[in-house]
Specification:
Elements lengths: L1 H38 L3 E4 L6 E4 L5 E3 L6 E3 L10 H37 L1 H27 L25 E3 L4 E3 L3 E4 L4 E4 L3 E3 L4 E3 L4 H29 L15 H20 L4 H32 L4 H7 L11 H6 L4 H4 L15
Antiparallel strand pairs: 1-2, 3-4, 5-6, 7-8, 9-10
InterPro entries: Palmitoyltrfase_DHHC, PFA4/ZDH16/20/ERF2-like
Catalytic activity: L-cysteinyl-[protein] + hexadecanoyl-CoA = S-hexadecanoyl-L-cysteinyl-[protein] + CoA
Pfam families: DHHC
């Protein structure tokens, strides 16, 4: 009887341990299920555009509102423009240097060329002065408008309240944490100017200003007038240098002998040494003309490359920044010659005579 009782006690203890182990396993499974449920719990975030609270399936640093279309970047506070005063001083120095160079080219060119031109005829002198005056006024005027005109600010719109902001009212708008206001898709914040620029192309330190929707035409007009001015300066300075250059003290070519390649090298070397030796006899007017020729040619090459690049972007219906943003993506601009006419404000009666190959949107979307 005693052995049977001890066996029954052992069976009851085993059953008890089995029940306890099953209970603990079930509790651990419930705890795991509860943990998984908290991970997939919706996250609440507020839209800066309309102020609505959105439930996101998971945490996302950037999301787009389904009502107003604004794009919100979470955990991004207000930023400060550091060294803004230094950038402003730097740009003003560039503007002063460029204005001084243009005035030097104008005044120095007139002073150095007018004796040669007026020695030909009085009519040639008056014609040269007229062309110089027109190019100077147009170039300086376009430079001043591009440098001191506001490049364009985004329009003021209402935001932050659901009853005011309608559906799709802020489509693809972002929030500028420097200016603390909405920013349209084609608006960029310039840290050098300290403001948001509408349809920004780039920040040009030589004009000390951004190139945007309001002054882009003046910037292109300045490039065109500057290219024509440098071409005219290079032509007139080279002609004047040719007229006043001292005779070259070269030896007679009869004494040069040898193969054709060797003879050509000797002639070239003689001409170089003769030019350098005769350059020492040039007057101050001649030295100014030589400097104007080389400086105008170098500036002309750089401005021509920049002008062709700008016209290429306008032809594609883009800006420089939008071209950079579209690289590596599928976005392709509409190429059309009418983009150039719309950019310069030509009427539709002129553009309708062009071949209608592409239909492109308006240049500036405000």
């Amino acid at each position: 009887m005693i052995e049977k009782y001890s066996l029954d006690s052992c069976d009851s203890v085993s059953v008890f341990y089995i029940i306890v182990s099953v209970y603990l396993a079930n509790m651990s499974d419930l705890a795991k299920e509860h943990f998984v449920a908290t991970v997939i719990e919706d996250h609440e975030a507020a839209c800066w555009g309309c102020g609505l609270h959105l439930l996101l399936p998971s945490y996302s640093p950037i999301f787009k509102c389904g009502w107003c279309g604004a794009i919100t970047t979470q955990n991004e506070g207000k930023r400060e423009n550091k060294f803004l005063w230094w950038r402003l001083v730097r740009d003003r120095c560039f503007v002063c240097v460029l204005l001084g160079f243009m005035l030097f080219v104008i005044c120095g060119g007139v002073w150095a060329v007018y004796p040669v031109v007026f020695s030909i005829s009085y009519f040639c002198g008056i014609f040269h002065l007229s062309i110089t005056l027109i190019l100077s006024i147009v170039t300086i005027s376009m430079f001043s408008l591009a440098a001191f005109r506001c490049p364009g600010t985004p329009p003021i719109i209402q935001w932050g309240s659901y009853p005011v902001v309608g559906k799709g009212y802020l489509e693809n708008y972002t929030f500028c944490h420097y200016c603390s206001k909405p920013k349209s898709p084609r608006t960029h914040h310039c840290r050098s100017c300290g403001m948001c620029i509408l349809d920004m192309d780039h920040h040009c330190p030589f004009i000390g200003n951004c190139v945007g929707a309001a002054n882009h035409q003046y910037f292109i007009a300045f490039l065109i007038s500057a290219v024509f001015s440098t071409i005219y300066v290079s032509i007139m300075s080279s002609f004047a240098v040719w007229c006043i250059w001292p005779p070259l003290p070269t030896r007679s070519l009869v004494y040069l002998s040898g193969t054709h390649s060797y003879l050509a090298w000797r002639i070239l070397k003689e001409l170089i040494f003769a030019s350098l030796s005769s350059a020492l006899l040039l007057s101050s007017r001649g030295l100014v003309l030589v400097y104007l020729f080389f400086s105008s040619v170098s500036v002309e090459i750089g401005l021509t490359v920049l002008l062709l690049q700008q016209l290429c972007y306008i032809y594609k219906g883009k800006t420089y920044l939008s071209h950079l943003n579209s690289q590596g993506g599928d976005e392709v601009g509409e190429k059309d010659c009418k983009n150039l006419l719309r950019f310069f404000g030509c009427p539709y009666s002129v553009s309708r005579y062009l071949p209608n190959v592409w239909n492109s949107p308006k240049r500036h979307n405000k």
